[in-house]
């Protein structure tokens, strides 16, 4: 078969020879491959319509752009390689200086109508405008694709979770009798290629890319579907340091607040402040987790149980403070009654002393004692009365001190109840917290 070639004649000093020079345009002209030729792009490129077109496909992970739990969206950037056979194209490389492949624009040849079923947004990345055509009819297309896909995520073990998202590739109209999809590489090879090719992973660590295929049947027709499953593990360090550890620290602070004196108001204020801080962290958690989940996330259980324990601690502090205040009011009323009785006894003793002195003076005047004797006895009576007053004051002071010491040593029934409640709740708190934390971390790791 004749074709257009260029002959270049080079004359050297010692002779002459001819060298054949070829171009890609020679191959294109030989195939009559033009943009106006509808033979190559209108129908499936087979000579017999019963012969299916086998499309070999590989999807390699180039970057994990985002994984959004709130909307359950997976956004990777993948590198797609497709190859199929065009039975209308072939040439002999020996007739074209050994040319085995040429690149032609995408719109010049037929392409399989493959689409990603999970894709929810049109790709806006730059597309490769060319495809490779080989001498035996193989057509190869390579292009980068930003996939915005939906992914059913399980955030039960957040932030120690592992997610698996699928990209299902299939034909839109061609059934399995017309187009059959086959993977280029198996699971181990495509995983290895992706690990070598990947550039960015962000919060996620890429683990595996597996490939499988199945047929989707609807009515009396079946379509061949190729499924690529991306498995990735979250890096939990950011969430542990910014969320889980602060919640744990607040729990330790609430536990340490049991060593604050109960009769002071600082303990209750401290516990309420810690409880409000936990509430702020719960608002942050609400922005992270999706609104709908099949199972309650363990981190939500972690926060709710800690919040409930701290709420019970605040209520227990309120009850203990109330009991102690009630006991103090009863002691204060009893002390006031005793003070009134003591004042009445003191006034009665003072009146008796005054009457005694009046009787002494009357007797002395009636007996007409000498002036010197009257002066001496008056002086002695004044000194004696002063000593009696001092003695009474000392006795009153001693009774007051004894009453206060007895009040401190002999607590009332409400204070005893408060002490028992405080001790029992402290034992419950110290026992429950380690058991709960152990169970929740075991659940995270299994």
* CA-based shape: rod-shaped
Number of domains: 2
Our measurement of the CA-to-CA distance between the termini, rounded to an integer number of angstroms, reads 70 Å
Into which percent range does the helicity of residues fall? 40-55%
Low-pLDDT ranges: 1-18, 357-362, 371-376
Beta-strand content estimate: 25-35%
Structural class determined from secondary elements: alpha+beta
Total strands: the figure is 14
Return the string of H and E elements.
EEHEEEEEEEEEEHEEHHHHH
- What Rg do the Cα atoms give? 48 Å
**Whole-number average pLDDT?**
81
Q: What does the main sheet amount to?
A: 8 strands, mixed
Counting DSSP H or I runs of 4 or more residues, the number of helices is 7
Structure description:
The chain is of the alpha+beta class and 446 residues long. It folds into 2 domains: 43-235, Acetylcholine Binding Protein, Chain: A (Distorted Sandwich); 238-446. Helices cover 46% and strands 26% of the residues. It has 7 helices and 14 strands. It has helices at residues 24-31, 187-197, 237-256, 266-288, 298-367, 371-409, 413-445; strands at residues 6-12, 15-21, 53-68, 73-85, 101-105, 114-116, 119-121, 130-134, 138-146, 148-150, 162-171, 179-183, 204-218, 221-234. The strands form 3 sheets. Strands 3, 4, 5, 7, 8, 9, 10 and 12 form an 8-stranded mixed β-sheet that branches. Helix 3 (237-256) runs parallel beside helix 5 (298-367), helix 4 runs antiparallel to helix 5 and helix 5 (298-367) runs antiparallel to helix 7. The longest helix is centred in the C-terminal third of the chain and has 70 residues, at 298-367. 17% of the residues are buried. The model is unreliable at 1-18, 357-362 and 371-376 (pLDDT under 50).
């Amino acid at each position: 078969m004749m074709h257009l070639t260029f002959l270049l004649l080079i004359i050297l000093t010692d002779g002459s020879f001819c060298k054949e020079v070829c171009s890609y345009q020679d191959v294109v002209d030989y195939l009559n491959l033009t943009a106006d030729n509808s033979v190559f792009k209108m129908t499936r490129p087979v000579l017999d319509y019963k012969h299916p077109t086998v499309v070999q496909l590989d999807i390699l992970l180039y970057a994990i752009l985002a994984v959004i739990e709130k909307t359950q969206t997976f956004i990777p950037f993948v590198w797609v390689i497709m190859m199929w056979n065009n039975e209308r194209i072939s040439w002999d490389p020996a007739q074209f200086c050994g040319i085995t492949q040429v690149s032609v624009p995408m719109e010049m040849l037929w392409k399989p109508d493959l689409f990603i079923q999970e894709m929810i947004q049109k790709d806006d990345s730059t597309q490769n405008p060319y495809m490779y055509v080989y001498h035996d009819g193989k057509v190869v297309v390579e292009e980068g694709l930003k996939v915005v896909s939906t992914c059913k995520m399980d955030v039960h073990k957040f932030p120690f979770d592992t997610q698996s998202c699928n990209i299902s590739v299939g034909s839109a109209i061609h059934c399995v009798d017309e187009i059959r999809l086959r993977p280029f590489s198996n699971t181990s090879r495509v995983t290895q290629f992706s690990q070598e090719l990947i550039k960015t992973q962000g919060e996620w660590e890429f683990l595996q890319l597996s490939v499988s295929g199945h047929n989707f049947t609807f009515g009396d027709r079946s379509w061949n579907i190729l499924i690529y499953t991306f498995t990735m593990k979250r890096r939990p360090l950011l969430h542990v340091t910014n969320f889980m550890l602060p919640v744990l620290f607040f729990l330790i602070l609430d536990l340490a607040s049991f060593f604050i004196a109960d009769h002071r108001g600082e303990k209750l204020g401290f516990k309420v402040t810690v409880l409000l801080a936990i509430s702020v962290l719960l608002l942050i958690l609400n922005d992270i987790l999706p609104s709908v989940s099949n199972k309650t996330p363990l981190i939500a259980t972690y926060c709710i149980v800690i919040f409930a324990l701290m709420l019970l601690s605040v209520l227990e502090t309120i009850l203990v403070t109330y009991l102690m205040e009630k006991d103090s009011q009863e002691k204060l009323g009893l002390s006031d009654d005793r003070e009134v009785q003591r004042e009445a006894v003191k006034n009665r003793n003072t009146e008796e002393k005054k009457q005694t002195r009046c009787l002494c003076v009357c007797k002395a005047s009636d007996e007409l004692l000498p002036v010197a004797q009257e002066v001496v006895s008056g002086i002695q009576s004044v000194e004696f009365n002063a000593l009696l007053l001092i003695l009474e004051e000392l006795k009153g002071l001693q009774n007051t001190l004894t009453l206060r010491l007895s009040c401190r040593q002999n607590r009332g029934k409400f204070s005893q109840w408060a002490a028992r409640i405080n001790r029992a709740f402290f034992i419950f708190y110290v026992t429950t917290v380690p058991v709960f934390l152990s169970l929740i971390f075991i659940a995270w790791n299994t």
